[in-house]
Write a structure and sequence with these properties.
This protein is an alpha/beta fold and about 260 residues long. The protein contains nine helices and ten strands. The strands form two sheets. It has a six-stranded mixed sheet with strand order 6-7-8-3-9-10, with helices on both faces. The N and C termini lie far apart (about 55 Å).
């Protein structure tokens, strides 16, 4: 037996995830009003992947996203964006991290009505005192299909077009990770499918990392992986999901009494 066979070379370490929760706990209130929203959650979100987070109402999925995105503070445990431990940051550092490293897409679009689509897309960069990369902006606008709509204000756009603007705004700063909270919740099924397609394309074609909270099995089926929460804990995960497989898992959790 060769020397190499007797002493196999160590395998290359896995790349650092875009976000990681380790033993993450979040408690609201005290005494009889105490609610444990997250109960020791440990989960990684790999770079360049689209992950959906699902669970019954009150399962902790939005709380997990808010803690990982630096929008809420965990009671205990670790929340990291890349190699940065969020609990170690000052409020100013946290604000800078959210601005520079994290993109957000919300159910309610959150566009400024007096600005054009283009101005809404580039607003975070302008606030940071940075000029948009013209070539990257062109790629993002093309990816979400907004060419010809950039001079329109939100009131002149459909709900689906407004959410396209929000997706482009989240992507234009090239964040390490995009968090999407029920991004299709206010859209009809056709517009919702378009938005999910844009998010998926941003992962496959632009190398983006996306974490999406959703209650919709059809939406979750666009992801590479689904993480299931119940009662503040990770209870399952599914790779290469189909809407049918996701629905079956959700129904199983309900049958087991996981109501959140």
């Amino acid at each position: 037996m060769s020397q190499l066979a007797q002493h196999p070379q160590p395998t290359a370490s896995l790349p650092e995830p875009a976000a990681r929760a380790a033993g993450l706990t979040k408690v609201y209130g005290k005494g009889d009003a105490r609610v444990t929203a997250l109960d020791g959650v440990s989960v990684d979100f790999p770079r360049g992947r689209f992950t959906a987070v699902m669970g019954p109402s009150g399962s902790g999925k939005s709380t997990l996203m808010h803690c990982l995105a630096g929008l809420d503070t965990a009671t205990s445990g670790s929340a990291r964006i890349g190699g940065t431990e969020l609990s170690s940051l000052t409020e100013r550092q946290l604000t800078n991290l959210r601005r520079d490293k994290v993109g957000f897409v919300f159910q309610g679009f959150n566009l400024l009505p007096t600005l054009t689509a283009l101005e809404n897309i580039t607003l975070p960069l302008r606030i940071a005192g940075r000029r948009p990369d013209a070539k990257w902006l062109e790629v993002v606008v093309a990816t979400v299909g907004l060419a010809g709509r950039l001079e329109h204000r939100p009131a002149e756009l459909s709900g689906g077009q407004q959410q396209r603007v929000a997706v482009a705004r989240a992507l234009v700063s090239r964040p390490d990770i995009v968090f999407a909270d029920e991004p299709t919740g206010n859209l009809d099924s056709r517009s919702g499918a378009e938005i999910l397609g844009f998010l998926r394309d941003s992962v496959r074609e632009l190398g983006q990392t996306v974490v999406m909270v959703t209650h919709d099995p059809v939406a979750a089926a666009h992801a590479d992986r689904v993480v299931f929460l119940a009662d503040g804990r990770v209870v399952d995960e599914l790779y290469g999901p189909t809407s049918g497989a996701v629905l079956d898992r959700m129904l199983r959790f309900e049958a087991q009494g996981h109501t959140g």
